[in-house]
Backbone:
C-alpha cells in the first residue's frame, strides 16, 4: 500500500487515481495526525508526503512528520513533494532520511518511475543472492580483491533498478567500467549507453551539447543537432566528471533530471526522455556542497546510490591480474608475441604506489612491452620505464613567494611538459590528473603543446 499525505484534495485524488491505474493500492489522508494513525497501525510500502500543511511555507510540519514516520517505520521509503521554489525544503528532508523528492506540478511518468525504483530498492535483499551473482556480467572487470568484490555486489543488487548512481574514486580507478557494468546488467542493456565528459564541455556549449539545437537557433547552427539526452533515450547516460560542472549548468541539468523533460535550443516544445543516470567524480562533492560550489539539491538527485571505488594501492592483490590482462590485450591489438613476467617483476609492480591507479599501471605495462621487446620481462625492465613521482612533487619545495595559485599551477604544468617532452599521458600521470583535466588546464592557461 502507498500512503499519500497532502492537505489538497485535488492532489490526493489525482495521485490516488494515477497510482490505482498503475496497479498500486493507495490510501490518502489530509493531515499529519491522520497519517500517523495509519503509520502506527500498518506498514506502508511507500509514502508520498507533502511538505506544507498550513498557509506557512516553512515546511516545519512536513519535516516533523517525516522524523516521526522514520521513528515508527524506518525502512519505509518516503518521497517528498514540494514546489520548485521551495526545493531547499526537499533537501532538508533528504538530510532527515527521505528517499527522494519531486516538485509540483509533477510528471506522472517520472513519478511512477521513482516510485518503482523506491519499491524495488526497499524490497531487495541486503545480501546479494546466488542467482544475482551467477547472472551478473562482470566479464570486462578484472580483479578478485575484497574491495572490488564489495563494489560489484552493490551494483549487482541495484543494476536492474532505475536508481541514480554516483561513482566516486580517484582518477584512473575505472569509474567508467563500473558505469558500463551497471548498464549492461540492467533492463536498459539493449538501449544506448551515452558517455558525456562534463569537464570537457564549456558553459556556452552545454545546452547545445546536452539538449541539441535546431538549425538557425544561433549564429553557427547550420544544421539540426541531436543532444546527448535524446541519444540516451530508453538507455543510460553517464555523466563523467560531474564535479567540474559550472553552477549555471548545474541548474539546467537538475531541471532535466527532476522532470525528465528538456527543450531543444530553437524549439520551445518540451521533449520527454526516459533515462537512467550514472554519474562519476574524483572530487569531494560533499565538501563542494558545503563550500556552495555544487548544488545540494543536484547532489541528492544524482546519488541515490553511492559507489566508492578503491584505489589500486588498496587492492594490490589485483595488480598481477591486471598486468597480465593489459599484456595480453596489447599483444592481441598489435600482433605481438606473448609476454611473460618474472616473479621479481610482479613483486616490483605490486609494491609501486600508483597514484594514477589502473590507468598508470596500464600505461607502464604497455610502454615496457613496446620499448623492451623481450618475451620475459623482469623488474629492471619496468624500473627503467617507471616514471618517478618525486619530480612532480619537487615544485612544492621551490620558492612560491609572490605567485598566485594559478601561476603556480601554470608553472607546474610547463615544467612537467618540458620534463616529459610534451607526452600528455605522462604529464597527466605525473600531475595526478586525468588527460581531460589536463586539456582543460592547457586551454585555461593558453599553453600550446
Residues:
Amino acid at each position: 500500500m502507498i500512503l499519500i499525505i497532502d492537505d489538497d484534495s485535488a492532489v490526493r485524488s489525482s495521485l490516488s487515481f494515477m497510482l490505482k491505474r498503475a496497479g498500486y493500492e493507495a490510501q490518502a489522508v489530509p493531515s499529519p495526525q491522520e497519517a500517523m494513525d495509519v503509520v502506527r497501525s500498518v506498514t506502508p510500502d511507500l509514502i508520498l508526503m507533502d511538505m506544507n500543511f498550513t498557509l506557512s511555507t516553512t515546511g516545519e510540519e512536513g519535516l516533523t512528520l517525516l522524523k516521526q514516520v522514520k521513528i515508527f517505520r524506518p525502512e519505509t521509503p518516503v518521497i517528498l513533494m514540494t514546489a520548485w521554489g521551495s526545493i531547499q525544503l526537499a533537501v532538508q528532508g533528504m538530510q532527515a532520511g527521505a528517499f527522494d523528492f519531486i516538485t509540483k506540478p509533477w510528471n506522472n511518468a517520472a513519478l511512477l518511475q521513482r516510485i518503482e525504483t523506491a519499491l524495488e530498492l526497499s524490497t531487495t535483499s541486503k545480501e546479494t543472492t546466488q542467482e544475482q551473482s551467477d547472472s551478473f556480467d562482470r566479464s570486462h572487470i578484472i580483479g578478485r580483491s575484497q574491495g572490488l568484490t564489495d563494489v560489484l555486489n552493490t551494483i549487482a543488487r541495484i543494476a536492474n533498478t532505475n536508481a541514480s548512481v554516483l561513482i566516486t574514486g580517484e582518477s584512473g580507478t575505472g569509474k567508467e567500467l563500473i558505469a558500463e557494468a551497471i548498464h549492461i546488467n540492467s533492463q536498459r542493456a539493449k538501449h544506448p549507453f551515452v558517455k558525456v565528459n562534463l569537464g570537457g564541455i564549456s558553459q556556452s556549449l552545454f545546452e547545445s551539447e546536452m539538449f541539441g539545437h535546431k538549425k538557425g537557433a544561433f549564429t553557427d547552427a547550420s544544421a539540426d543537432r541531436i543532444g546527448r539526452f535524446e541519444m540516451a533515450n530508453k538507455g543510460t547516460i553517464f555523466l563523467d566528471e560531474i564535479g567540474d560542472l559550472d553552477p549555471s549548468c548545474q541548474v539546467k541539468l537538475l531541471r532535466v533530471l527532476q522532470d525528465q523533460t528538456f527543450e531543444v535550443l530553437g524549439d520551445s516544445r518540451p521533449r520527454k526522455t526516459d533515462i537512467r543516470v550514472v554519474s562519476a567524480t574524483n572530487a569531494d562533492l560533499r565538501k563542494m556542497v558545503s563550500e556552495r560550489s555544487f548544488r545540494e539539491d543536484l547532489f541528492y538527485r544524482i546519488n541515490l546510490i553511492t559507489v566508492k571505488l578503491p584505489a589500486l594501492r588498496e587492492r594490490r592483490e589485483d595488480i598481477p591480474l591486471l598486468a597480465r590482462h593489459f599484456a595480453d590485450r596489447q599483444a592481441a591489438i598489435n600482433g605481438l608475441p606473448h609476454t611473460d613476467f618474472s616473479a621479481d617483476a610482479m613483486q616490483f609492480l605490486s609494491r609501486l604506489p600508483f597514484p594514477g591507479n589502473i590507468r598508470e599501471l596500464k600505461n607502464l605495462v604497455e610502454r615496457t612491452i613496446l620499448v623492451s621487446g623481450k618475451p620475459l620481462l623482469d623488474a629492471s625492465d619496468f624500473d627503467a620505464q617507471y616514471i618517478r613521482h618525486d619530480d612532480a612533487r619537487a615544485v612544492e619545495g621551490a620558492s612560491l613567494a609572490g605567485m598566485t595559485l594559478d601561476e603556480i599551477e601554470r608553472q607546474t604544468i610547463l615544467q612537467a611538459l618540458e620534463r616529459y617532452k610534451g607526452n600528455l599521458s605522462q604529464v597527466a600521470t605525473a600531475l595526478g590528473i586525468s588527460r581531460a583535466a589536463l586539456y582543460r588546464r592547457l586551454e585555461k592557461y593558453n599553453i600550446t603543446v
Summary: Confidence is low (pLDDT under 50) at residues 125-131, 391-399. The first strand starts at residue 2 and ends at 5.
